[in-house]
Here is the input.
Amino acid sequence: MYYKSLTSGICPDLLKYAIIKPCFKESHNSQISNYKSISLLTDFCRIFELLIFHMVKHHLVSNNILADEKYGFCYDVSTESTIF
Here is the structure.
């Protein structure tokens, strides 16, 4: 199902479903602006996102597209590496 979705460009209905919960941020809880929304996704959606992440990462690394200064897709690199 994942591969078919990627090749056809059609997003399954399972990926369009999320439970949205309000989460209190600060100050007065009576004001709606003091809440942020949290989206709880389905397991299908999380697996699909992980699949796409690994496909994009593989493409970027195998084609040497990432600059040496980019650490977003790199493993075994700490925040200390960005400072140096």
User: Anything to note?
Assistant: The chain has one domain: 2-83. The two ends are 44 Å apart (CA to CA).
